[in-house]
Every structure is written in C-alpha cells, then in structure tokens.
Design a protein that fits this description.
This protein is of the alpha/beta class. 47% of the residues lie in helices and 20% in strands.
C-alpha cells in the first residue's frame, strides 16, 4: 500500500510539472510578437475621383481591389484582423487614413492606388515606400497623390503649410527617418514580385517618394500603384473584373508571404531570447588553477599548460579556470586529473557567467 501511495504521488507531481510546463509555453506564445492586423486603404473616394481613364475612375477600381484583398485575407488567414479606411464611396482625409492604422496598432498598412500620366504609352505596376523622391517622375506621382489634401478644409493648418505642388515642400521627407524602411521595402518587393510572376504585369519596381498618406503611419507601409489608367490596354485590364481579381490576389499573396517571414523572424528572436535566458541560468563547473592580483599575460606558463583557460574577476583578484562541465560528477572526475599537475586546484561553480558557491550549484541542479 505504501508503495502504491508513493507511486501515485510521483505520477501526480509529474503531471503537475507537465501542466506547468505547457502553461509556461502557452504564456510564452501569447507574449510572442505576431502579425495580427493589416489596414487596407482604398485611395481617394467621394468627391475625390483620383486618376481618370477613358471610362473608369481610380476611386472605384481601388475600392473593389481593396475589398477583395481583405476578403482573401479573411478567408485564408482568419486569424488576421482586417481594417479598411473606407468600405464605400466616401471621402477620407489623408491624415485620417494613417491615424486609422495607428489607432488599430496595425502591423502593415497598404494604400492602393491607380496611376495617370500625360504619356499614354507608359504602363506597368509599381510600389512605393516613404522616402525622398529620386527622380522627377517619382515626384510627379507623389504630387498627384498628395493633391487630394486641397479638397480638405483648412489643409494648410492640418499639414503644417505643406504645398503638394511645390517641390520645396518635399524637402521635409529628406529629413525624415523611416524606421520601418527595410520592412516596407520587403513588402513592396513581394508585391512587385507577385504582380510580375503571377499576373504578368510590367514590373516598374520598388520606389521611394514623399507620400503624405504614409508619413504618419507608425508601421511598415507601402503605396501600391496598380497601373496607368491613361494607358488604354492597362485601363481595360485593371478596370475589368478579371484584372481586379488578379491584382487583389497578388496583393493578398504578398501579404501572406510577408506574414510568414514576419512570424518566422519573430520566432527566431523568441528562441534566441529563450536560449539567452537559459544560458544565463545554466549551472556549470570549472576547475580553478591559478589566482593573481594582476592579470596574467597570455604568454605565461599557465596558458601553455592548459589549452582552454578562462579568466574572471572576483574579490579584487584575477582567477583562472580550465575545462567546462555541466555535470558535477564529471567535473569531480576531471578535477582528480588536473590535480596531478596543479595540486591545489579546486572546483568553482557558475550560474550563467556569475560565480556562485559550489554547494548552491549542486543544490540547484538536484
């Protein structure tokens, strides 16, 4: 009977230990940074039509694409929270769009647009990140998208005197430091890759320009230009139901790939942190073979006698150890051999890289 009670207690303690272990894992997983929210911004809307083609308006095309992107994410990535800056034909100020992303603590901000230019031969998709325009063409795209603020009341106050048609106003973007630039470029590259490989669109690349809609966003952000409504063939494609579905699918795939990379990196950082934490509390044993008030030179005899010598300071003295063991019995066995060369050698214990009393180390391991 006594044996039965003893075994029952052992099993109960083991079960409690396992439950506590998995509870710790669950808490750790909850604390891990994960990709949770994406904000999708359909450019323009309401009284702001955006770019105009021969038979289509930018505001209508990008709204359809934005809603389809969100629908794909909800269907195939149900754990992701999707937020729209607009879901209907309404006007939303540029500053409000970024505020929505900030208020929802978004992990990614997508602003979807369609382009226009005076030369009808130009076509292709491009994705922008916030930065200083490198070409006059990029500046013109930014001017076109930023001009929407003139439809807002008292826009000079809201945007601190920014003039969307003045090249001088864009100097502010040269002074800005976008801390999310690498992640933004990563997302932009994924979008362009999907457009090129999956949809067969001309890849106009990842570019930088001063977009007000991205300026206040406190997370990785991109502005996607689906194509040019001023090019007849491209307008026909991106305004068609097939074209909008293909472009939305490409953006969704880019978001999914970005999330996978985001979560993978987060897990790697978590494992590194756990490993570092484990290393900091690991109990180990070394064999002390020398001690000195002054640091011993690397050319000294002790370094010749032992290949692995580790120095640490304690109590105002420099102490020197050799070997490394995590098992007390093996450390004791090694000590017997070392004493054949250094008679007064002895074991020292460490928790992480901090020396602790030998008895405490043994007790902690037991």
């Amino acid at each position: 009977m006594t044996t039965y009670i003893f075994k029952t207690r052992v099993l109960l303690n083991l079960l409690i230990g396992v439950l506590l272990f998995f509870n710790d894992l669950q808490l750790s997983a909850q604390e891990t940074i994960r990709f949770k929210t994406v904000v999708i911004d359909a450019g323009h809307g309401g009284r702001d039509s955006g770019a105009l083609g021969k038979f289509s308006k930018e505001k209508d095309i990008v709204l359809d694409v934005a809603l389809q992107v969100g629908a794909y994410i909800k269907k195939y990535m149900p754990d992701i929270n999707v937020v729209y800056t607009r879901k209907s034909d309404v006007f939303v100020p540029l500053s409000k769009r970024a505020d929505i992303a900030n208020e929802h603590d978004a992990d990614l901000f997508l602003s979807i647009h369609a382009n226009a230019i005076s030369t009808s031969k130009i076509y292709g998709a491009e994705t922008f990140v916030l930065g200083l325009h490198r070409t006059d063409e990029n500046l013109e795209v930014a001017k076109l998208e930023n001009s929407v603020i003139t439809l807002e009341e008292d826009y000079t106050t809201t945007y601190e005197g920014f003039d969307p048609n003045s090249a001088e106003s864009y100097i502010i973007f040269e002074l800005m430091q976008n801390i999310h630039i690498d992640q933004s470029i990563q997302m932009a590259s994924l979008v362009q890759s999907q457009f090129k490989e999956r949809v067969g669109r001309k890849d106009r690349g990842v570019k930088q320009a001063g977009f007000l809609v991205l300026r206040r966003a406190s997370m990785p952000s991109v502005l996607i230009e689906l194509g040019f409504l001023t090019n007849h063939n491209e307008e026909k494609f991106i305004a068609s139901e097939k074209g909008k579905t293909y472009m939305a699918s490409a953006i969704f795939r880019a978001v999914r790939a970005y999330k996978e990379e985001f979560d993978s990196k987060s897990r790697m950082e978590e494992f590194a942190s756990l490993a570092q934490s484990a290393e900091a509390t690991k109990i180990s044993y070394r064999i002390q073979v020398a001690s000195s008030k002054k640091a011993i030179r690397k050319s000294a005899n002790i370094y010749e006698r032992f290949t692995d010598v580790w120095e640490f300071e304690q109590g105002g003295r420099y102490k020197y150890t050799t070997q490394y063991h995590t098992n007390y019995e093996k450390a004791q066995a090694a000590l017997s051999q070392i004493r054949e060369e250094v008679k007064d050698a002895f074991l020292v214990a460490f928790k992480g890289d901090q020396p602790i009393p030998l008895k405490e180390a043994v007790a902690l391991q037991q």
